[in-house]
Amino acid sequence: MKSTAFILKITLLLFGLTAPFQVYSADHSEDFLNINGRGYYIRANPLNKYLSHFCKQERLEKYVNTFCIPHWPNYTRHWEIKNDQLYIVKIETNKGAQYPFTELFYKYDGAPVFANWFSGILSYRRGNSPELQLNHLYYEREMVVRISDGIVTEIFEMNHRKRWIEYSNDLLEEYFPLRPENDLSAGIDAAALATHPDAIPKKRTQTEFWANVFYYTAPIKEKKSRYYPSSRVVINANLDHIPFKESYRERSTFELLKMITQEERLSLDVNILKSVVVYTINERS
Prior knowledge:
285 residues; 2 domains; three-stranded antiparallel sheet; 13 strands
C-alpha cells in the first residue's frame, strides 16, 4: 500500500496544479502577498512545491493532520516580496493562531523563509477588475509576477479579455472557409449536414450565403481544446450586395471578416459570451 505521506503529497501537488486557475476572493484565497507596500490575495500556492518535494514525511504529516485539516479552510499563508525575493512570513488561522515554522522548515532561524524552491507565477487582481469566465474563471486584468528559484524575474499586467480574443483571432487566421475542400457555394458535404442539419437553408440570399461561410470557424472534425476559445460569427447587416469572388478562396475567416466590414463600412464588434468569442457584423449607425 502507498504510505499516508505519499497520498498526502499527491493530493497537495494536484491541488497546487489546479488551484491557480481559480479566482479567489478575500474570503476564499489561502495565499496573501505583500508587494510594494500593498497586500493582495493571489492565485497560486508556492508552498505546495516545498511540501511535495522537500518536506520530510513526519513534518508533512504533522502539518496536515494538526493544522491543515482542523482549520481548513480558515487559514492563510502570508508571503512577501522583498528585494526581488519571495519569502513566506507566516501561516495563520483567521483567529490568529500560527503554525510554528520550526515544525515545517529545517534550521528555521526566526526570519521569513526564502522560497528558493518555487519557480512559477503568482497573479492577483488589478484594481476592481471584473471576473471573466473563459476556460477558467479569471479577473479581466491581473498583475503577474514571474519567479525563478524564489527570485522575481518579471512583473507585468495580463489582460485576459484581450488574450482570449487574440487567441480566437489566431484560430480564425488558420481556417480558410472558401477553399475547395470547404466550398459552401456548392453546398456542404453529407457528414457536415448530418452534424448541422440547419446549417444551410434550402433557398439562400447572399446574406445567408455569407452566414454559411462564417458558420464554421474551424474544421468540423477538429476537436477544440478547452484551453482555446470557440468562435461564433453573427450577421446583423444586409450582405446581399457582396458577391462571391474566386480571390476570396485564399482568405482566412479573419481576413474575410475584416475585408467585408472595412470595404462595406460596417462595424465588427467583438465580445465574449460564456467563453465564446462572438464577432458581430453590424450596420454603422
